[in-house]
Give the backbone structure.
Amino acid sequence: MSTLPPRAGRRCHNAINPLHSTVYFSPDLGKELGELGIDDPNAAYFAARSAAMGAVGPGTVTAAFYNFNHDLVARHLPAVWSVAAPQAVLDARLRAADTTLRRLLGEEVIASPELAEAAGLALRAAGGCTRHARPLYAAHADLPVPEEPHLAYWHAGTLLREHRGDGHLAALLTAGLDPLEALVSHTATGKGMSPRWVLTTRGWHRDDWDAARERLRGRGILDAEGELTEAGVALRAELEEATDRMDAAPYEHLGAEGVERLTELGRGFLFTAASAGAFPADLMGKD
């Protein structure tokens, strides 16, 4: 039985994960990987996020990332590893995280006791994560923890993000949602990526998107206008609740007081980063 308030772990995740993800939207990552010879944005993303698993091929990444078109992944992997080795990519990603966080948060926050406190709390939470059936988390858990607090916080955010993400994929499979159906139904909640971003970054085409919407209509998950039906709302809610259950361990490990404090600190850092333009203005939405 949980010792935490309802959805406390989810709220904490939602405070930490977006700051972690700023690196993947940052020009600093493109600059660092460009200097290694990786110029294509899709190749840079696949390399940066999968490098902890080693020089893997497209099948591994398609499986672990779930919602990307395999043809897009195969266009860049394993070829990217002939340009830069995984360790070089990991080093470049950490340099990009350093530059990005310093720019978004400012040196005063970077040097603050609050950020050091948050790093300690997030690492303590990550100590409760489990490796089994969680390939992206397990690969990142084998990486060393950076010494500087802001990078340790980012590293812990990576662990917590991939731990929850690996569990979420199990929930999607159980719900019978294929990669694009998962994206379409999430976008329909108003909290997912806009269709333009999905089609630009995930390798799908408009025909694929429309076909997925039709399949979801046929299952009673979307209505004729593409909005979630009552059953669709219930399905998305159950997906998040199932993910919460599979992601409870790190937050139970940290404890209610620690989770509350980490959420408070994380929200403050996230607000500062968002105010500094960390995210594209058109990233989220139904259109």
In short: The CA atoms of residues 118 and 262 lie 6 Å apart. The first helix runs from residue 8 to 25. The chain has a mean pLDDT of 97.
